[in-house]
């Protein structure tokens, strides 16, 4: 595996994780329910830490770390804004949109694990993926209990 491919893979993860970070941050602003506001703020902080760790790994590889999300992620955040405005900050709609975004993050992390990464990077990516899956499952559970 070339150093360039490793850097590209990690930078892709930075972008999608930053999308998640911003999505949670924006969702925390959009919800009125204190439990979701607290949850989304906590998850935003967690995703921010993941981004910083990935940026550190890119720098260790001699690359320039990404510092922003994807263009698609920007559209995702706009969609959350639109849905929130149109549906009056509907709890279920916001949860479903967050689930969808996390599903995309999971897909991208799974693709990254198919790349031959050095062991310490593979382990860190696998740990991030496990966390994202657990958080997505938590959103699914919250969505199911929202009626």
Characterise the protein shown here.
By secondary structure, the chain is an all-alpha fold. Helix content is 83%, strand content 0%. It has helices at 3-30, 34-60, 71-86, 91-114, 119-145. Helix 1 packs antiparallel against helix 2. It is elongated, with a radius of gyration of 16 Å. The model has no long low-confidence stretch (mean pLDDT 86).
Molecular shape: elongated
The string of secondary-structure elements, in order, is HHHHH
* Overall mean pLDDT: 86
Largest sheet: none
User: Roughly how many Å apart are the termini?
Assistant: 48 Å
Tally the beta strands. 0
Helical residues, percent: over 70%
Radius of gyration: 16 Å
Strand content: under 5%
In short:
With 147 residues, this protein is mostly helical.
Give the SSE map.
Layout: H1 3-30, H2 34-60, H3 71-86, H4 91-114, H5 119-145
What are the salient characteristics of this protein?
mainly alpha; 147 residues; 83% helix; 5 helices
């Amino acid at each position: 595996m070339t150093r360039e491919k490793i850097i590209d893979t990690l930078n892709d993860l930075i972008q999608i994780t930053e999308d998640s970070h911003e999505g949670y941050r924006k969702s925390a602003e959009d919800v009125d329910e204190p439990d979701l506001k607290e949850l989304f703020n906590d998850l935003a902080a967690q995703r921010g830490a993941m981004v910083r760790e990935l940026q550190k790994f890119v720098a260790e590889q001699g690359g320039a770390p990404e510092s922003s999300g994807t263009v698609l992620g920007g559209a995702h955040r706009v969609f959350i804004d639109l849905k929130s405005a149109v549906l009056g900050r509907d709890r279920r709609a916001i949860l479903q949109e967050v689930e969808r975004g996390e599903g995309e993050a999971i897909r991208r992390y799974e693709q990254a694990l198919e790349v031959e990464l050095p062991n310490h990077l593979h382990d860190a990516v696998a740990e991030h993926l496990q966390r994202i899956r657990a958080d997505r499952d938590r959103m699914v559970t919250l969505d199911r209990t929202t009626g």
